[in-house]
Amino acid sequence: MSAPVLEVKGVTKAFGERQVLRGIDLTVGEHEAVALIGASGSGKSTLLRCIDLLEEIDDGDVFLDGEVITDPAVSPVAVRRRLGFVFQAYNLFPHMTALQNVMIGERHAHGARKAEAEERGRALMARFGLAGREDDRPDNLSGGQQQRVAIARAFAGKPRALLLDEVTSALDPELVGEVLAAVRDLKQAGMTMVIATHEMSFAREVADQVAFLHAGRILELGPPERVLEHPEREETRRFLGRLLAAGRI
Amino acid sequence: MTEAATIPASERRLEREAAKRRRSRRGAAIAALSSVLVIGGLAVLVLTSNGWPEVRETFFSWTEFKNAFGEVLSGFWLDVKVFMGVEVAVLVIALALALIRVSRSSGLFPLRLLSTVFVDVSRGIPTVLMVYLIGFGVPALQIVKPAPDPAILGAIALTISYSGYVSEVYRAGIRSVHRGQHDAALAVGLTHSQAMRLVILPQGIRRVAPPLLNDFISLQKDAALISIIGPVEAFRAAQIIQGENFNFTPLVAAALLYLAVTVPLARVVDRMGGTEGAVR
Hints:
heterodimer; A: alpha/beta; Rossmann fold; six-stranded mixed sheet; four-stranded antiparallel sheet; 10 strands; 25% strand; globular; B: mainly alpha; MetI-like fold; 80% helix
């Protein structure tokens, strides 16, 4: 196995009195997709935000390609340029067109020339089924289209790993499929990914490993067949049982 | 071709549309009638009052108007120069103040403190007093000789007063942009200042453009305040003629000139307010 792309070691994070992460260890290898599952508030989003340095961790360390990135001496901007993040609520820039959203990182963070960034932006939009929507404002796109623009935007910076934070949770059910197809495409292209998700069937299909988070700890980690079908922990069984009862599996 | 046009209209729909037309005709009739009553009533009240012939002569004399208009207009030109200059200066200075106040960098702490004090003080002093203090205080310091043009000192006073207000408008705009926008800007690899310039400010400023222009309407009127330290702008020019002829028409002429610049701006503000999903 090649050297891990991402390594999370003993990470803790509290917001005031609330301890959200209580010592997380996780290793994500090259081309590997790890699905983070768990109830709302279990720490999935916070973990992703900590990896992208959108939150400052309290203890532990995160390594990207073997280098520590959670050191005060490391520039967070430089780290974020090597990672991609897709938000639950898309967070597209509403005053820019879809294409400008996809290009902004290349233009302003990676110093690409305009023509170059535009060409790549158009190609990426076509790849995610958005050809013809380049000049639309996010407002004029469906939720599924917006999220695909957001995926293209995150992917445009040629990240070493993509962090996906419940990218289908804000979507109408009939739009979920097109976004999952985009993620599947990235997986086939060999993208290293950490995916926080509530879509268990999708986790089973795309993830190499599933991590079950509960109260800020990873309680169970393993291949999807094992964690989802033969969970060892009572908490995992209860969580999956609740999803089953809600008709979400 | 819209779908609605291709569906043949039913009896029920025609009936509904006829009712809607009747309702809107009735609404228009009521609006017209009540306007005539109110405006006509007020006109009758004013025109039949005992003092009206006197008032018409001293406030609305056409001869006096023609006489005074040229001078009042040239005074107004000074107002225009002052408020245009002040508007540009305020836009820049207020933005700088707002950016300093929202910054988190510890190196900027002294500037942040100064900006906060400046905003508090500049907003807290009546504009008329500010004009007085700058207009007489700065020349007394004798830093530059000869003393600067009072119109410029007046413009500086207005700039100080309005920068405080407008910086708060900017700050409100910046803070109204959802935090997720900043996160997303950082996530694509932008620096904090790039995020501000490319993502936060364009959205925030657009959002506060109406209140910002509203402050400018107020500023365009307040340009008259510089007259208290000497410069002969529209109000002062009108007042001088009024003092000579004991007729108030020149002041009415000045009022019309102020309206000529503030009303169009007010209409622009109105129109902007209606564009973004406002309650109608």
